[in-house]
Amino acid sequence: MTSDDTARPPMYSRSIDTYSALTPDQAEAVRELLAEAARSDGQQPVSEQGRLQLSGGAREGVSHLLLSAGDELVGYAQLEDTDPVEAPAAELVVRPAHRGHGHGRALGAALLAASGKRLRVWAHGGHSAARHLAQVLGLTLFRELRQMRRPLTALDLPDPKLPEGVTVRTFVPGRDDAAWLAVNAAAFAHHPEQGSLTQRDLDDRKGQPWFDPAGFFLAERDGELLGFHWTKVHEAERLGEVYVLGVSPTAQGGGLGKSLTTIGLRYLAERGLPTAMLYVDADNTAAVAVYERLGFVTHETDLMYRTET
Asked: What average pLDDT does the segment 2-28 reach?
């Protein structure tokens, strides 16, 4: 949620159109808007999952809202209604040069109407303007997602101690897909975004330029997948990421997660990257404590707001 709606009404007509799928030209226009906002705000206004869902045709439960002022695309929102329990989740952004005209409020109102006034909205970075918009829309703070970072230079971590009989190898695309999806779903059963990933979601990520199976580590015993550490390299920022780290419920509590973290961090350090990052929910105190012991500190936060109903 990136907007500033503390000022004046627009001087031109405004329209909001909703689509189940975007044309290639529409998707490219949205990407250009997102890039402009990212340059201005210093961070992406829409999550990786949201950006991946811009192309590839219609996706069940996903809607795209395009706000135009005159002939110019000045705002975008995405609504995802796929969780069987939680309220639909949304992200929205207004082009920086067009903020202060009520566009964010208009998109928020459209999202509330489309979701039956049962809505969750991300505010990436938790900026004051986004907090104000959430208040105007009647939303309350629900979730805090921390981005934590640590230096990789002169990395000094103890050797990983794998549980007895456990070995680690790298991911083989195609061969390991089904097993990984199953363990990911089990490890993140409590996490609606990560735990619900499908083969299509995995294929989307395998098709990205950053995907490299050499940095995707699998821990197994007797051929059974027990855990994984999928790393990601942001080449432009020279930043390594603990992209996804998961351990099967049957293998938790034995130190496998910490060992996989160490293996991935060493891999990123060997790539010559100066810094590592990760995302973790603030209320996951056990995970936060583990990462703090590994030298991570909070860099910034993303906030999620929701309706009371």
From this structure: 81
